[in-house]
Every structure is written in structure tokens, then in C-alpha cells.
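Sequence, please.
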């Protein structure tokens, strides 16, 4: 009864099954592309919402890191991201703070990190 108006032979049925699989593959490909595009749009929205100062003057610092070595440690400051302390010649490290905000509204360039603890450097 289900195939009263459908295929009358196995070859036609196999063709329908093959077309159905192709359509499913195309749908999954499109769905994955949409998820990727949505994730990128979310990432760009977050980037656009971030304060990089007047005329985005500090945007070029995004993704950059600056290091300072002492006798025991390397301190790494990554603007708009984090501050870490790593032992020289060792592995691992300590998260010393995470970027919180820029606060560039008044034209100055204050920096705000959450849970930031800076050592005394002699």
C-alpha cells in the first residue's frame, strides 16, 4: 500500500534510496556550514563589542604577548587576554590574571585584569 504510487521495481527504488542519501549528505554539509558560520558570527560579535580604545587604537595588541624574564620566572602579558608566570626552563605556569575591561571611555588607557597579582620585581 505504501508503494502504490511509488516505484514498481527494485532499480527505481534503489535510485530513490541513493537520491535520498545524497540529499541527506547535502543537508548535513549545509548544516555544518551554518554552524561554522554561526560560531564565526558569535566570535566577531564578541570582538566588535570589545573596547580597544579610541578609534580601536589598541586593536593591534590583540593576540600579541610580551615577556619579561627574571632570575626564576618569565612573566607574560597578553593584552586583552591574560597574565601568566612561568618558571624558567620548566613547564606549566600560573595564571596571574585575566583581562576584564579596557575602560577607555575617558580617553585614558587604564587596564583591568581580574584576580591579578603582580610580584615585586627587583
Amino acid at each position: 500500500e505504501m508503494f502504490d504510487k511509488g516505484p514498481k521495481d527494485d532499480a527505481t527504488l534503489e535510485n530513490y534510496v541513493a537520491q535520498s542519501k545524497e540529499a541527506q549528505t547535502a543537508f548535513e554539509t549545509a548544516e555544518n556550514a551554518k554552524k561554522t558560520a554561526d560560531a564565526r558570527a558569535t566570535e566577531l560579535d564578541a570582538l566588535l563589542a570589545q573596547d580597544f580604545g579610541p578609534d580601536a587604537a589598541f586593536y593591534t595588541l590583540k593576540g600579541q604577548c610580551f615577556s619579561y624574564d627574571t632570575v626564576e620566572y618569565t612573566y607574560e602579558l597578553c593584552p586583552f587576554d591574560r597574565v601568566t608566570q612561568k618558571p624558567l626552563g620548566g613547564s606549566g605556569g600560573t595564571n596571574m590574571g585575566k583581562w576584564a575591561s579596557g575602560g577607555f571611555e575617558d580617553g585614558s588607557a587604564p587596564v583591568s585584569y581580574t584576580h591579578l597579582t603582580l610580584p615585586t620585581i627587583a
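DSSP finds one helix and five strands in the chain.
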